[in-house]
């Protein structure tokens, strides 16, 4: 499923928080926007165990 909600690709540098939009450009700074959906979860991912362990360790 494709998400229509997009986020400013330069929000970390230009904004205090993510700026969401439905268009291909940011309404505040005119930068390009990108898909805001996270990567899909795949339980058979060979490196998923390591990423989940790293995430638990950083909490």
UniProtKB/TrEMBL annotation:
One annotated GO molecular function: snoRNA binding
Assigned keywords, A-Z: Ribonucleoprotein, Ribosome biogenesis, rRNA processing
UniProt cross-references to InterPro entries, sorted A to Z: H/ACA_rnp_Nop10, H/ACA_rnp_Nop10_sf, Nop10_arc-typ
GO BP terms, alphabetized: pseudouridine synthesis; rRNA processing
Organism domain of life: Archaea
Record-level GO cellular component terms: ribonucleoprotein complex
Function comment: Involved in ribosome biogenesis; more specifically in 18S rRNA pseudouridylation and in cleavage of pre-rRNA.
HAMAP family named in the record: Nop10 (MF_00803)
Family of this protein: Belongs to the NOP10 family.
UniProt protein name: Ribosome biogenesis protein Nop10
Species assigned in the record: Natrarchaeobius halalkaliphilus
UniProt lineage: Archaea, Methanobacteriati, Methanobacteriota, Stenosarchaea group, Halobacteria
């Amino acid at each position: 499923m494709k998400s229509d909600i997009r986020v400013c690709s330069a929000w970390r540098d230009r904004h205090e928080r993510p700026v969401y939009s439905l268009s291909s450009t940011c309404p505040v700074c005119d930068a390009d926007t990108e898909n805001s959906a996270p990567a899909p979860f795949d339980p058979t991912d060979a490196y998923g165990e390591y990423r989940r362990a790293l995430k638990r360790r950083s909490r």
